[in-house]
Amino acid sequence: MSENWPLFEVFIRTRNGMAHRHVGSVHAVDAKMALQNARDVYTRRGEGLSIWVLPSAAITASDPADKDMLFEPTATKIYRHPTFYDIPDEVGHM
Amino acid sequence: MGERALFTYTLRLADNALVLGHRLSEWCGHAPVLEEDLALANLGLDLIGQARAFYAYAGEIEGRGRDEDALAYLRDAREYRNILLLEQPNGDFAATMVRQLIYAAFAHPYFETLTGSRDSTLAAIAAKGAKELAYHVRHSSEWVIRLGDGTAESHRRAQDALDELWPYAGEMFEVDDIERELIAAQVAVDPQTVRPAWQRTMDAVIGEATLTLPCPGWMQTGGRIGHHSEHLGHILSELQFLQRAYPGAVW
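^ inputs. structure came back:
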């Protein structure tokens, strides 16, 4: 049965001010039911304040074969990390 | 007499919740898909939570030292006060969803009204339960709509379930002397006052599902005074097995 149902990705916002985070996926006949399924599967322990679902088919993903081209070049560019500055104590937590 | 009426009334609320909760628990591991397996367990757990609160309060009112476990596990079928609708077998998935809709569409406005009870304990239990039941209405409605307005087979199954279960709907609206007394005292809810809300939900959902509500006709009765279908005994034989076989067993 479920193999005929489209897959939806589930995003949950746990607290006000936080971003929605990907938590997993559910099968459902349509978006409305996907929302209910997400509620039933992923918010059983008080995790959620807001849920997003979207069809997994709507996601455009990078090709794992492109990994070297896409990500490898950044490995040598450590100057992009903000670790070369001394942060005055008075600034506090950044 | 007042205490006795309040005890019976609270017990009816508790038994309704426990019996339907148990029925839903029977789906655990058997639902058509994992998502629905969890959903049914969630609904069942909501109801068992409501049952526990009502039983604990009933035991307190009775004042004979019976706690929630004694009331749930050590009464025979004739002492159970749930309506017959809720002990009906799960049948197929359509039957389970139609039964859930018929009950939740009634219980949700009923609990909302019960939050105004002069009995503060009943009002508090109802306030928690009303939010849960609102979701039961949502979940069962969406399924009944999709099954009714789905394939030829799902439509037929949903309509069969509706026809089969319809004669059990009337018992939800019964009022006897016990309840009349409590309604007058503004402790209990007069079920007739929530009938329009129930009817609205049923009309809307059944209409959108392209199903047909059966004509009002002869209605089943008896559960609320302990006259049950043969199904309740089978439920209790499973539900009560452990306490009957090993009295006093604990975790």
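Chain B has one domain: 2-217+228-245. Residues 2-217+228-245 of chain B form a domain with the Ferritin fold (CATH 1.20.1260.10).
thumbs up if we can close this ticket
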